[in-house]
Write a structure and sequence with these properties.
Oligomer: single chain
Shape: elongated
Strand content: 25-35%
Number of strands: 3
Mean pLDDT: 86
Number of helices: 1
Largest sheet: 3 strands, antiparallel
Strand order of the largest sheet: 1-2-3
Number of domains: 1
Helix content: under 10%
Order of helices and strands: EEEH
Low-confidence stretches: none
């Protein structure tokens, strides 16, 4: 069974559901404005196999939930 993936460069407003296969190019945490010890959001740049890039944000509520599953490494 072959999965069909959409490319970032083909994205438009006519379609509501997309299936992307992307890699994280850069990821960073943004501190909360209210409390510097808390995560405000997780920001990232994603890239598909054709080189198309998109910027994504994981908002505060979900960042708290998933931050333990995301490992930030410097290479």
């Amino acid at each position: 069974m072959t999965e069909n993936f959409d490319f970032v460069t083909d994205m438009n407003a006519r379609k509501l559901y997309w299936n992307f296969k992307v890699y994280i190019v850069r990821i960073w945490k943004v501190q909360s404005k209210d409390n510097e010890k808390e995560i405000g959001s997780i920001e990232m740049i994603l890239q598909d196999c054709k080189g198309g890039r998109i910027y994504a944000t994981i908002l505060r509520a979900l960042a708290k939930k998933w931050s333990g599953n995301i490992i930030l490494r410097c290479t």
